[in-house]
Design goal:
With about 700 residues, this protein is α/β, with parallel strands linked by helices. The chain is about 40% helix and about 20% strand. Helix 1 links the parallel strand 1 (about 5-10) and strand 2 (about 45-50). The longest helix is centred in the middle third of the chain and has 22 residues, at about 360-380.
């Protein structure tokens, strides 16, 4: 059995004699969200038409009703101007309707009636939120009490007013503010909050919904009388689930939109295979690519390959993809944990919006909670010990072999030393330690980037030009004189004016990378790569010996790693001073992402300390965070939803390992810096979701 709906909302009209309606745009979004919600309406498809011409609306109505089967349920909703002629014919205004020529430019009542009568679906519901909408059923037999108590298969019409009344928009202090139609607002209130489940059986049928709507509308506006008519009704036609036992507290009017539900739906679909990879016992996910199953165990690979079966899930899947890429770019490790946190937060916030909480106020609570969580991470973290390096690296890489190798390299190069990872030619894990250092500044312009996906500018076997003070113009001629049009050159100076930068960026010279640093780092770099530190005058007399050398230079927007400044024959770590060591790890292509995650996690732990791993540290943080909630009731609801979501990584790790959270390995450790990135990125994604309309 399929449940299908078409919602038509027209608030803007080409004919200036038809006044603009403020309610339809808001009405249709909120009603669509309620119908699509799997816990409320559970409709298979919900199509929304906003401000369309009459021929487009006719085609959409036919497309909704014509292909239906006997066991289907269809719902058709109109929110627009209702127009009547002197002969009492009723028309529904489209965006191109001419007020005094409705027969050729509007949707006639007869068209809708014929389409609904011809439709094969056993359940057909027509909701009309229009002035004079009661005129639709003139000539129908009004449903008596006996019919209302037994409404089911058949053709049901529910109207906002009778044949002679206006349907009112609710009052607003601002004429430009979007306001809800009273009739539709009451319908949404009854459906989303469960208040229309008058008999408490957990379901809302058309009889209950009308009785609830009629009582509420008449109570608020005695001059508006909703109408109900039925054709060929039998068993109760259930519109929505209400849930809960009789006497439960009804929810408030839901505040979410259909767009938010689409994001939440797609996010869940794409997040599930990512969350299955969490933890030491994380499983491999099977993702279908071009209808072929592919086995994957890495979050980045999963989101790159994931193709939703349902096109409605593409938007939410894009949120997961963006979140994974952000965490991988900022921290290397923690992408799957961030997805688990964001998924839990979005689920909790949908529940909060079902209770009527405003999404913007919820977002303020999420933002405040994330800021407080950042402070709690600083308080909870402890310095990393040498023995902890292997534990952190193993957890990030998901394997003891890689964890052990990274720990060995860190032990020889130092915890703060730069470590580069590149694809090797063999099948073994190999490393070497040479001279090198990390500059606290990155590339001078994003136009130097050679790998946009990784946000990196990379030079191999580069000459290094060191300039004190301001880099003068004419640098292009200097480089051309020494290197022609070939070679890699890394230019480091204390000041880089726009004219000189422009020269370096000109195409067809060499592969150049430029960075700006201070005099202390310039001197450290000189000790590492050799050459001579030149000023503007000496630059013109530079010779080949004036340039230093580096085996590899990797720059991002935040930092620059320089590796291998010593002569090629000297590769022993023992001859390198303690503060200028760097490591290079060569790995098979399949292990490259794992080693990179391990290296970045260890570096983050060295700078920011560690927390208990296995997601337990985040769960403990969430418990502390929940007790610190402050703000208005709605802000606290957002805060609590985010705090509760921090327990999701531990829950999924335990589930993947078939143990309880209490049984997770207490010796596992996570980088506090990675945890900070997880919290920040998940909060950003959650806030993005809340701002969807």
């Amino acid at each position: 059995m399929g449940r299908h709906a078409l919602l038509v909302a027209t608030g803007e009209y080409e004919d200036v004699r038809l006044s603009r309606l403020r309610a339809p745009e808001q009405d249709v979004e909120r009603l669509a969200a309620v119908l699509e919600d799997s816990d409320v309406g559970g409709f298979t498809t919900v199509e929304v038409l906003r401000d369309r011409a009459d021929h487009e609306i006719r085609r959409a109505v036919e497309d909704l009703l014509a292909p239906r089967e006997a066991d289907d349920l269809v719902l058709l909703y109109f929110s627009c101007h209702g127009l009547t002629t002197a002969a009492r014919r009723l028309y529904f205004a489209a965006s191109n309707t001419v007020q005094d020529r409705p027969a050729g430019t509007a949707i006639p009542r007869s068209f809708l009636n014929e389409q609904l009568e011809d439709c094969r679906a056993s359940g057909r519901i027509l909701l009309l939120d229009c002035c004079f909408s009661g005129a639709f059923v003139e000539g129908f037999k009004a449903a008596g009490t006996s019919v209302l108590d037994d409404v089911g298969t058949g053709y049901v019409v529910m109207t906002a007013s009778n044949a002679y009344e206006y349907a009112f928009e609710q009052d607003s202090l601002s004429l430009d503010a979007p306001v809800a139609s009273l009739f539709t607002d009451v319908l949404i209130e009854g459906l989303a909050g469960g208040a229309a489940d008058l008999d408490g059986d957990g379901w809302i049928d058309v009889d209950e919904l009308f009785k609830y709507a009629q009582a509420e509308v008449r109570g608020r506006r005695p001059d508006q009388t909703p109408q109900f008519f039925a054709h060929g009704s039998s068993q109760p036609l259930r519109i929505a689930r209400a849930g809960g036992p009789p006497g439960r507290r009804p929810r408030g009017t839901a505040s979410y939109t259909s767009g938010q539900l689409l994001v939440a739906r797609g996010f869940r679909a794409a997040a599930e295979p990512v969350c299955r990879t969490l933890g030491p016992m994380g499983r491999r996910a099977v993702v279908f690519v071009d209808r072929r199953p592919v086995e994957l165990a890495d979050a980045s690979a999963i989101v790159a390959a994931f193709q939703p079966d349902d096109p409605r899930n593409w938007l939410g899947a894009g949120y997961v993809r963006d979140l994974v890429l952000q965490v991988r770019r900022d921290a290397g490790d923690g992408a799957a944990s961030a997805v688990a946190v964001a998924r839990g937060a979005i689920g909790g916030l949908v529940e909060a919006m079902r209770d009527g909480h405003n999404p913007v106020r919820l977002m303020r609570g999420v933002t405040a909670a994330a800021a407080r969580a950042d402070e709690l991470i600083t308080d909870a973290s402890v310095p990393v010990k040498p023995a902890d390096v292997r534990v952190v690296a193993t957890a990030a890489a998901g394997g003891a072999e890689i964890g052990g190798l990274v720990a060995e390299v860190v032990g020889k190069a130092g915890s703060g030393a730069p470590i580069l990872v590149e694809e090797g030619r063999g099948i073994r894990l190999e490393y070497e330690v040479r001279s090198g250092l990390r500059l606290a500044s990155g590339y001078a312009s994003s136009l130097f980037v050679t790998d946009a996906e990784r946000d990196e500018a990379v030079l191999v076997d580069a000459r290094v030009l060191l300039v004190t003070g301001r880099l003068p113009t004419g640098i292009r001629a200097v480089l051309h004189r020494h290197f022609g049009v070939a070679g890699y050159v890394f230019v480091v100076c204390e000041e880089l004016p726009h004219d000189a930068l422009t020269e370096l960026l000109l195409p067809g010279v060499h592969k150049v990378l430029a960075a700006v640093t201070d005099s202390d780092e310039l001197n450290r770099l000189h000790a590492t790569v050799g050459g001579t530190i030149l000023d503007a005058d000496l630059l013109q007399t530079a010779n080949p010996h004036s340039f230093g050398r580096a085996t590899k230079v990797v720059a991002t927007s935040r930092e620059t790693l320089v590796y291998g400044g010593l002569p090629q024959g000297d590769t022993t770590a023992g001859s390198i001073s303690g503060d200028t060591k760097a490591g290079l790890i060569r790995v098979p292509a399949a292990d490259l992402p794992k080693v990179e995650r391990a290296v970045r996690a260890v570096r983050s732990a060295a700078h920011e300390g560690v927390l208990r791993g296995g997601g337990v540290g985040l769960a403990d943080l969430g418990a502390r965070l929940a007790s610190d909630a402050t703000g208005t009731a709605e802000e606290i609801a957002g805060w609590q939803a985010f705090a509760a979501a921090l327990a999701e990584p531990a829950r999924r790790i335990a589930e993947n390992a078939a143990v309880t959270v209490a049984d997770l390995d207490p010796d596992l450790l996570d980088s506090a810096g990675v945890a900070r990135t997880v919290v920040t990125a998940a909060a950003h994604t959650t806030s993005r979701f809340l701002l969807v309309h």
